[in-house]
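dumping this here before i forget
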Amino acid sequence: MELPGQTGTNCRGIIDEVVTLAGTRLHPRNLPEEGQTDMSVRITLLFLLLTLTLIGAARQAPAPKRKPIPPKTVALTFDDAVKTHLTVVAPLLKQLGFRATFFITQKWMEDQAYFLTWDEVARIHRLGFEIGNHSWTHSDFGKAENGAKLGAELELVEKELAKVGVPKPVSFAWRRNAFGPEALEQLRRRGYVVARRGMQPDVPYGAIQVGPALQVKKHHPLLIPTTGDAYPAWTFEHFKKVLLSAKPDEIIVLQFHGVPDEKHPWVNTPPAAFREYMTYLKQNGYRTLALRDLWQYYDSARLPDDPLLKARCCAK
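structure:
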């Protein structure tokens, strides 16, 4: 999977070099002495022929196509750097062979009894999971004044991650699922390629309902919707309803917090229920991904014109 900035050979650059070289040979001050004109013309013609060949190949090369989305594709995401991400969630996911993204914020890290330290975040990374950015202060970035400051907050998290050997994230999760144009611009400037929002504005915050499945031709990669946001009132039947909501060429995106989450009980997931959910995914052939893995299903040259890119959503 190639992310932006990880491209192969630049054919256009080769063409430009050849054209420049051929043009240099044809410049009057570089014409050869009498008796050498024929050889110079031949060399120049060869350069021009090579140039035309490369240009023709570049024009005929098909545009890169996005990968087809396999059925039963699910993205697993976990917010807020809760201690149980290391003690409960990551070991179970590793055992099942699942991929996932853990979104890290510094907001509650001083409470080391319930939240991760930076070294513990690095341990999750070394287990093979993606570490994403969830901002430094966990502020409402749907507000214009906060959105303009997001870039600085992203950098603070990136620097702490770098100290413990975790690569710069390319994934972001919106705090309280609020977003706005100013914050989106900061994500672009910092090189983020995917970001997960909540079920809002499609579904009210806290409602036990099914959110939208990801449609890569409709939803912008920086506004990937949550299909299922795990709340304490979730039931196993609701979980299965979320999974069954995806149509062909759609992806289910699941959002969890702590398992359990004693400090934020309104987003708590009981460990027994979580194990039941994950076991069901495994036994029924679901393919689990980290958020960054979703980029491969987008046509990077033709990203969707999502109307929410110009919206200000869900701030409280």
